[in-house]
Amino acid sequence: MAPGSLVLLLSILGTPGLGDPGPLEDVVIDRYYIPKICLREVQMGDFIRYHYNGTFKDGKKFDSSYDRGATVAGVVGVGRLITGMDRGLQGMCVNERRHLIVPPHLGYGSIGVAGLIPPDATLYFDVVMLDIWNKNDKLQITTLSKPERCNRTVENSDFVRYHYNGTLLDGTPFDSSYSKNGTYDTYVGTGWLIKGMDQGLLGMCAGEKRSIIIPPFLAYGEKGYGTVIPPQASLVFSVLLVDFHNPKDSVFLEHLEVPESCKRRAVTGDFIRYHYNGTLMDGTLFDSSYSRNHTYNTYIGKGYIIPGMDQGLQGVCVGERRRVVIPPHLAYGENGAGDKIPGSAVLIFDVHIIDFHNPEDPVEIETAYRPEGCNVTTRDRDFVRYHYNCSLLDGTKLFSSHDYEKPQEVTLGTNKVIEGLNRGLLDMCAGERRVLIVPPHLGHGESGARGVPGSAVLRFEVELISMEEGVPEGYLFIWHGEPPANLYEQMDLNKDGEIPADEFSTFIKSQVAEGKGRLMPSSDPEKVIADMFKNQDRNQDGKITSEELKLKSDEDQEKIHEEL
């Protein structure tokens, strides 16, 4: 029956003031409210649920489903209803309202219902249709929205987390996960859900929204559920799938960006520094190292982080970007973490590897250029001049000697530079260029330094400009041969029995000029000579006496005897 059609012309209705038109031949139908959307109309053999008020012509009520607090459920067109009701309900939409006038011969006829409906009574019904279904109905699934990217869909035995609004077919709400401030979490296909929901969730993507209409025989059937779901009620669920996983899932990896040059991959025991964004499957951000402007630093494979991340970081390269999808049994499990990670949540980490190292790593040395005929190389205590560029492994520039007017100068082995750089400058030729990879335990350690993050691996590009042979530790000057036997007399240039600073300086410079000895290399030889004079001027009176003058070798020998 098409919406708006009437069984008889409305002129048959007994309009006040026009007199009695005579006995009715058929049911009179007044469709006084028709919903704008009518997806289905009642047909013969359909199961229906409806409310009604039944009155006589004078308005006296003889029956009401409202008074009983329960809807009426039945089948249309199979003789279970009075004929007039069978005819009057056909073609109705859910939420449609009708006035029905049922003549006696289509009601209870000349017999009536003892004590309730007299013989030959015309019956007036005010009906609202609440539900329509058929035993041949199937689940009705409508996809409301779906993510563009969907790598996996729900299967039987998966564990799902979803939000829902549940209503009856007429729109009456009966339950909502949103009102509980938490998702509904359960397994699919294991009998924990009504059959219709078990079927309706299959094939969904995380983030997908569906409308699922479930007929009663796939829902709560004849019994209904409590006071909120009547018997024989069709259910409508608006579902948003938040995430899902399977208890057998392992960590899923997606390699977003892998550097072309990857000489080394992280393994258990390595210390790694990385940035990350952590989200739930629906895209909700729960944590980010970027927001703290600090990498996350940890060992991998040793249980310091959740098992899924321990596994997910294995084999990464420096500079790699990787997505790590972690099921809850390898993350925070059923309890979740804090107020941002719900129980049984799948976690997605987008990580960017800044650097990694192992506590046993040495300095990694790569020679970029070595001059031919390189016979003299740097040794401990040598004075060297070099240029350098220093950066992090991700390319972040830290320092450069080229920013200054002259090269860097240092005496090797004097703890004036980090140990890794000191080692990297040994055995170099003048003009040689190297790339040094310095692990933090040979660099600035866990604490870092000004401009250098803690536990950072450093990359140096170094070029040795020049070198000067050094002197042994503790010495400021050494003789190339044996020192003069009459050293004090030679040093006392004016033969006045004392050696002031200018005489001392003149003598030492002459020894260096004649190739008889050498000073500790320094950018300021005058200071070295001044320090030598200060060491010999024991009483600090500005001159050296014969009793004060001692060679360092003699001083060392005296200390040995004293100890013995």
UniProtKB/TrEMBL annotation:
<keyword id="KW-0256">Endoplasmic reticulum</keyword>
<feature type="signal peptide">
    <location>
        <begin position="1"/>
        <end position="19"/>
    </location>
</feature>
<keyword id="KW-0325">Glycoprotein</keyword>
<dbReference type="InterPro" id="IPR051989">
    <property type="entry name" value="FKBP-like_isomerase"/>
</dbReference>
<protein>
    <recommendedName>
        <fullName>peptidylprolyl isomerase</fullName>
        <ecNumber>5.2.1.8</ecNumber>
    </recommendedName>
</protein>
<feature type="domain" description="PPIase FKBP-type">
    <location>
        <begin position="381"/>
        <end position="468"/>
    </location>
</feature>
<keyword id="KW-0697">Rotamase</keyword>
<feature type="domain" description="EF-hand">
    <location>
        <begin position="486"/>
        <end position="514"/>
    </location>
</feature>
<feature type="region of interest" description="Disordered">
    <location>
        <begin position="533"/>
        <end position="564"/>
    </location>
</feature>
<keyword id="KW-0732">Signal</keyword>
<feature type="domain" description="PPIase FKBP-type">
    <location>
        <begin position="157"/>
        <end position="245"/>
    </location>
</feature>
<dbReference type="InterPro" id="IPR002048">
    <property type="entry name" value="EF_hand_dom"/>
</dbReference>
<feature type="domain" description="PPIase FKBP-type">
    <location>
        <begin position="45"/>
        <end position="133"/>
    </location>
</feature>
<keyword id="KW-0677">Repeat</keyword>
<dbReference type="Pfam" id="PF00254">
    <property type="entry name" value="FKBP_C"/>
</dbReference>
<dbReference type="InterPro" id="IPR046357">
    <property type="entry name" value="PPIase_dom_sf"/>
</dbReference>
<keyword id="KW-0106">Calcium</keyword>
<feature type="domain" description="EF-hand">
    <location>
        <begin position="524"/>
        <end position="559"/>
    </location>
</feature>
<comment type="function">
    <text>PPIases accelerate the folding of proteins during protein synthesis.</text>
</comment>
<dbReference type="InterPro" id="IPR001179">
    <property type="entry name" value="PPIase_FKBP_dom"/>
</dbReference>
<dbReference type="GO" id="GO:0003755">
    <property type="term" value="F:peptidyl-prolyl cis-trans isomerase activity"/>
</dbReference>
<dbReference type="InterPro" id="IPR011992">
    <property type="entry name" value="EF-hand-dom_pair"/>
</dbReference>
<dbReference type="Pfam" id="PF13202">
    <property type="entry name" value="EF-hand_5"/>
</dbReference>
<keyword id="KW-0413">Isomerase</keyword>
<dbReference type="GO" id="GO:0005509">
    <property type="term" value="F:calcium ion binding"/>
</dbReference>
<dbReference type="GO" id="GO:0005783">
    <property type="term" value="C:endoplasmic reticulum"/>
</dbReference>
<feature type="domain" description="PPIase FKBP-type">
    <location>
        <begin position="269"/>
        <end position="357"/>
    </location>
</feature>
<keyword id="KW-0479">Metal-binding</keyword>
<dbReference type="InterPro" id="IPR018247">
    <property type="entry name" value="EF_Hand_1_Ca_BS"/>
</dbReference>
